[in-house]
Amino acid sequence: MKPRILTLCALAVAPLPALADDAWVEANTIGIFYHELGHAVIDVEGVPIFGQEEDAADVFSIFLIDALFEEETAIDLAYDASFGFWGEVEAREDAREDVAWWDEHGPDEQRFYNTACIFYGANPDSRDDFAQDMGLPEERAEYCDFEYDQANASWGAVLDDMIDRGPGDSLKLVEAPVGLIADVLRAEIDALNGLLALAEPVDVYVEPCGEANAWYDPEAREITVCTEFEPHLRELLTLLE
């Protein structure tokens, strides 16, 4: 059964009107922010994780995209968020770098297919075109609805609890320079605060970091998204074209 949050999807903010490359940056910014928000939710809501937390945060990100947005918008976001991982594959190969098997994040190829599979599995009856465009092998695609059900069993009740507690102001954009990433996160935070509330407040910062990166600090309960992501994401798009 779909999480109850889907009945409230009309409250979620739609992506800002943008040119194609801006829409790509926006979609991936949302995916990245939702991933870091997943870490924050795991922390402040005390969600038990059996396995890699990075994998759980990836699942939370695409699960939230499916839950919060109307179908057409969700599909657009899922396309770009999935291909964001494949852009990282292209960047790695372009730089002739090896896969960092030791990294806490899974290989970007696998993150691409995992993201695509869960999104497809949430509504397989109407997302065949998405699965085909993602190149999901039939051997994987036939089990994606079960993978979505697992994600729903893990995250659905957590989202419902946060909705029951909301609306609120538990997410706060504390510092952000002028720019597309800040605009996207400001809109997302406003929409999320209008829908739900976390058990503890979490501050969000957009700032230069010297690299394209984002993270959640559990001690400070802060999410940081680096401004360097915007040019990095635009470069990834050129590698995919």
Note down, in words, how this protein is organized.
With 241 residues, the protein is α/β, with parallel strands linked by helices. The chain has one domain (19-240). It has 9 helices and 4 strands; from the N terminus they run H-H-H-H-H-H-H-E-H-E-E-E-H. A 4-stranded mixed sheet has the order 1-2-4-3, covered by helices on one side. Strand 1, helix 8 (180-193) and strand 2 (202-207) form a beta-alpha-beta unit. Helix 1 (20-44) packs across helix 3 (71-94), helix 4 (108-122) runs antiparallel to helix 5 and helix 4 packs across helix 7 (144-165). It is globular. The model is unreliable at 1-19 (pLDDT under 50). Residues 1-20 form the signal peptide.
List keywords for this structure.
241 residues, alpha/beta, four-stranded mixed beta sheet, 4 strands, 8% strand, disordered N terminus, signal, DUF4344
Summarize the model shown.
With 241 residues, this protein is of the alpha/beta class. The protein has helices at residues 20-44, 53-68, 71-94, 108-122, 128-134, 138-141, 144-165, 180-193, 229-240; strands at residues 171-175, 202-207, 214-217, 222-226.
Secondary structure: number of strands: 4
Distance between the termini: 38 Å
The number of domains is 1
Averaged pLDDT: 88
**What's the SSE pattern?**
HHHHHHHEHEEEH
If helices are DSSP runs of H or I spanning 4 or more residues, what is the number of helices? 9
Structural class: alpha/beta
Oligomer: single chain
Tell me the radius of gyration: 17 Å
Catalogue the unreliable spans.
Answer: 1-19
What spatial form do the alpha-carbon principal axes imply?
globular
The major β-sheet equals: 4 strands, mixed
Helix share bin: 55-70%
Strand content: 5-15%
Strand order of the largest sheet: 1-2-4-3
Signal peptide: 1-20
Protein name: Metallopeptidase
Pfam families: DUF4344
Keywords: Signal
